[in-house]
Amino acid sequence: MTSIDEAAAATASMDAAAAATASNEDDTAEAASDELPSELAAWYGEQGLQIARVADLAPRYRYARVKDASETDAIRSTLDAEPVAWLPGFLRMPAARRLKGSAPYEDRRVFAMDAASGYAARALGCNEGDRVLDLCCAPGAKLLCLAEAVGVNGAVDGVDVSEKRLSVARKLLDAHHDPAGAARVRLYRSDGRRFPDERELLYDSRAADSFEQRGARKRLNKSARQREAKRLKALPEEDCAEAYDRVLVDADCTTDGSHAHVQKMVEKGTAVDNVSAERCSSLLELQAALLRNGFGRLRRGGVLVYGTCSLTKAQNEDVVEAFLRDEPAARLMSLEVPPVAVAGSIPGTVRFPAGGETSGLFVARLEKTPNVVVT
Ligand SMILES: C[S@@+](CC[C@H](N)C(=O)[O-])C[C@H]1O[C@@H](n2cnc3c(N)ncnc32)[C@H](O)[C@@H]1O
């Protein structure tokens, strides 16, 4: 067993929710009225949150990310949706409405993505041509936004420890990313605490492009997939250790702010174990290590966004504050608080509350201070 396999095993509980997360935003409307297990409700109480039912976490709106801005008005009227005033490129509709099955969704002119997630991707402030590292990238909605933001001259390296979740990301890319006309996207299976060490390249959109020219992409049988994997391995790779312009650390967490995840875990009977003291403490170590390595991969003057879909202070502000104490080159940058969110308990950070207009999310933005030249 490699250390990547070990790290993947530690997050296996998340895999159950992977498919839901890919279309997650499309399943959140099924607001269950089930009561939470009493231990879980008590755990929320310890975080200062009054959450007794799964439905208390449900966002009021369902969101669609429009891929081509010039189509926004037409798609908006087809979906009978309204624009999200604080987030360009997003439409919202009542949560009970389905996006799946609508023409814009089936024609792949939109994809489902919660607006809080869209905000986190936008907070990175990508520029055309940037090199971006997405350290916990699967199932990949933010990865798609980052790839769009850096354009054809940019590149996004997506890293995740879970092969299963990476295969969902691959499907999203197949559906929504143009390998020839857009950013280069690579997917690596690796432990984000150590990337670029011990990495396995699973997908390269530029290689997929050449594959497509042979008319074979999307219809690969098992032996063709094996040949493709071998070919990817043989490709000369640029060094991933080089400094990135932007890094997203969308860290693994207890997912207690996500209605879709909590609903799945309650159904499966894993929701209480998911917040056990042992799991929470191993997640805290993981989050700190992901943040440390993500920051290490950033160039001077580069920007990192740290986020989780946990509502706890421990997994959010505390992780960021501890990191700022240890890392003199890190500086917290202020984020604008959208009208549907609130300020985090450290100034400059943003919290989207669960059970509000969006899914629950915490977002912090850090800069690696530029070199100071002493004269
Ligand atoms: C919150 S999800 C990421 C969501 C993703 N950014 C998106 O927008 O779709 C957290 C991810 O972290 C991954 N993960 C957990 N431990 C990891 C590790 N040690 N290294 C890299 N990824 C890890 C999980 O497999 C999961 O896919």
Automatic annotation (TrEMBL):
SUPFAM superfamilies: S-adenosyl-L-methionine-dependent methyltransferases. It comes from the Eukaryota. GO terms for molecular function: RNA binding; RNA methyltransferase activity. S-adenosyl-L-methionine binds at D160, D191, D250. Residues 15-34 are annotated as: Disordered. Residues 24-34 have a biased composition (Acidic residues). The keyword Hydrolase does not apply. Gene3D superfamilies: Vaccinia Virus protein VP39. The active site is at C309 (nucleophile). InterPro entries: Methyltransf_25, MeTrfase_RsmB-F_NOP2_cat, MeTrfase_RsmB-F_NOP2_dom, RCMT, SAM-dependent_MTases_sf. Belongs to the class I-like SAM-binding methyltransferase superfamily. RsmB/NOP family. This is SAM-dependent MTase RsmB/NOP-type domain-containing protein. It comes from Pelagomonas calceolata.
